[in-house]
Write a structure and sequence with these properties.
Elements (H helix, E strand, L loop, with lengths): L28 E6 L9 E5 L2 E7 L5 E5 L13 E3 L2 E3 L6 E2 L5 E3 L17 E4 L2 E5 L24 E9 L3 H7 L6 H4 L14 E4 L4 E11 L2 H7 L6 E12 L2 E9 L10 E14 L2 E10 L5 H31 L15 H18 L1
Antiparallel strand pairs: 1-10, 2-3, 3-4, 5-6, 6-7, 7-8, 9-10, 11-17, 12-13, 13-14, 14-15, 15-16, 16-17
Helix pairs in contact: 1-5
Length: 362
């Protein structure tokens, strides 16, 4: 039986030679890492959009991102050390400044002009480090794709998680644009069994949004407990979710008490951010945040930290199975895809991605 290459960045099946195409634009802001993971003590080495990248902090705390491959003997700079504002290669001690230029070679005084590595533009906000992997000149003046201020304004109680998924990142993008999978993939972790009808879809020049209304019905525990409504009180729900760029997606769930008593709260909102960054065509980094606009006890938040990742693990499982099918089945991507009404948002997202890729190639 043919087996795929056992390498985390693989895109090739050894039996057929099939190559999974790279489908990620470079001229946009992608999530590189969380702020807490970038330090002045130890460099952080990552693979982002097929490129090796090293991140570290200067003495003033600002973050730096450079090509992680030393131009001398190709050693990863992330295995080296930070010296002041510079980073030192672990192999022969070449030292590089934050702009990427080599500033010291221990074995000689002269430094070749070509002894430099690429430096990447960064933006850091609300505990997230964003990176621009394409033409640096085009990053100037481009805002971050989504509003992340809710992570730091003290009005939301949230948890977050991270996983590396062995699948093409667009599979996750389409997954979160079609929540009719919830009753089947998440029957107990979410338990919203009424996701049975296709939502309405709205498309703008840059975004794809779905919206779904739910009539008053008892809530699953994941919604009933944090709102205080429990699992017996019927409540109305509105679910809407927007794909802003290939890197960023934000979803909301509004829950409304149809018959509140005087003085009782009648509305709650759940917000979820899905942040995806490809490492390769068959592997991506997935960072998520989930939070409520109501105060949650430390005990309940800890429960969320334990329980919520189980739902994301279910998505990871099914997406990796789909990717395995693409790689190992000799038909690969040349296989009929039956489109149904619930796929409208996902297909629109796919079209926008194709248009973005085409624009970069012009």
């Amino acid at each position: 039986m043919n087996q795929p290459v056992e390498f985390p960045l693989t895109r090739i099946d050894t039996g057929t030679g099939f190559t999974q195409p790279a489908n990620y634009p470079r001229n946009l802001w992608w999530v590189a890492a969380l702020s807490k993971d970038v330090s002045h003590e130890k460099p952080l080495g990552l693979w982002l959009l097929d490129e090796p990248v090293v991140l570290y902090r200067k003495q003033d705390g600002s973050a730096v991102a450079l090509d992680n491959r030393c131009p001398h003997r190709w050693a990863p700079l992330s295995e080296g050390r930070i010296d002041g504002d510079n980073i030192v290669c672990p192999y022969h001690g070449f030292k590089f400044c934050p702009e990427g230029q080599c500033v010291e070679i221990p074995s000689q005084k002269t430094i070749p002009s070509k002894a430099k590595v690429k430096a990447y533009p960064l933006q850091e906000k609300d505990g997230i480090v964003w990176i621009w992997m394409g033409d640096a000149a085009k990053a100037e003046g481009v805002p971050l794709p989504i509003d992340t201020s809710w992570l730091t304004n003290g009005k939301w109680w949230w948890v977050n998680g991270f996983s590396e998924v062995n699948a093409n990142y667009q599979l996750l993008k389409e997954n979160v644009l079609d929540l009719t999978h919830i009753p089947h993939v998440h029957p107990t972790t979410i338990g919203a069994s009424d996701w049975t009808n296709p939502p309405k879809v709205e498309v703008t020049d840059s975004t794809v949004t779905f919206r779904q209304e739910f009539a008053a019905a008892p809530l699953p525990a994941i919604y009933g407990i944090p709102t205080g409504l429990g699992m017996q009180t019927p409540a109305e729900r509105t679910n809407w979710s927007t794909s802003y760029t290939p890197a960023a997606h934000v979803g909301f769930l509004e829950i409304r008490h149809p018959n509140p008593k005087p003085g009782e709260r009648d509305k709650w909102t759940l917000q979820i951010m899905h942040l995806t960054t490809p490492e390769s065509p068959t592997r991506f980094r997935y960072t998520w945040f989930m939070g409520w606009d109501t105060e949650l006890s430390p005990e309940y938040l800890e429960g969320m930290r334990q329980h919520v990742p189980k739902g994301y693990a279910e998505d990871k499982f099914i997406l990796e199975k789909v990717q395995e099918m693409i790689l190992r089945d000799p038909r690969h991507l040349d296989y009929p895809e039956i489109i149904v009404q619930a796929d409208q948002a996902a297909i629109q997202s796919r079209r926008k991605l194709e248009a973005s890729l085409k624009k970069e190639q012009e």
